[in-house]
Amino acid sequence: MKHGMLAVLIGVIIGTGTVTAHAATTATTPETTYAAVTRLTKVSYYTTMGANTTHNYPVYRSGAYQTAATNMTAISAGRTYANKLIHITREEVVAGKTWLKFTYNHTHTGWIQQTATVQSTYRLVAPLIGQRPQLPTGCEITATAMMLAFGGAKVTKLSLAREMPRSSNPNKGFVGSPYKTSGWYVFPGGLMGVVKKHMGSAKNMTGASLTSIKAQVHRNHLVVVWVGNVDGFSNHALTVTGYSKSRIYYNDPWTEKRASMTNSTLTKHRRADAYRALSY
Fold this sequence. Notes:
This is GW domain-containing protein. It comes from Secundilactobacillus folii. Keywords: Signal. There is one protein chain. Residues about 1-30 have low confidence and may be disordered. The radius of gyration is 30 Å and the shape is elongated. Strands 1, 4, 5, 6, 7, 8, 9, 10, 11, 12 and 13 form an eleven-stranded antiparallel sheet that branches. A two-stranded antiparallel sheet has the order 2-3. The protein has six helices and 13 strands. Helix content is about 25%, strand content about 30%. α2 packs across α3. The longest helix has 27 residues, at about 1-30. β10 (about 235-245) and β11 form a beta hairpin. The protein folds into two domains: about 35-125, SH3 type barrels (Roll); about 140-280, Alpha-Beta Complex (Cathepsin B, Chain A), CATH 3.90.70.10. With about 280 residues, the protein is an alpha+beta fold.
């Protein structure tokens, strides 16, 4: 009987010890804690990857460093894409730092800190619309059509040309007919009503500095600028779509091409047409 009680006691002690040991192991196993994303924003713009010579910023698969198991180890580095144009589609903030989801050449995708990129470069891709052949003198309304279409309005150059008021005063409407080579021009004031109808707001930016125009584009609001002596015309209009530290990027309704010119060159052409500009 004593031997039996002893066996029972030993079994209880061993069993208790086993349970206690297992419980202790479970309690001390560290839980993986990932970094919290405080803000995630869907965007769509282009910028340039920096040289990454002083610091070669790592690239992660699906988000900022330590935000998931897939983001504990880098898959690449910024220097791989040095000075390349990249498409940014997401921004997220983690521990006070902004991270960007980028795609290069439609095939390589990753996440990198914003400081690895050239933050003075910001480019948007707007629909490219040519004024010819229907609107040989309708550069302003065609440039406006590109601006409004980018902003989400369901418009065409011809639908806007029909809506555009006509007047002998270019601040109130188009002088002549944009359908004819003998047509003249329209100034921002003559298009304010058309822009407001489709966007809910209109902004006459005549006299605005180049810095103000860049800031407007950075808000994802394109800007139509009036220029003199471009494409052989004394008066012309372009749709500004982006900028870098030294250049302005635009869509040209006459050539139906995306192009750029230096800040100083654009300023010279803007000066020749009274620094007129229009946005929303």
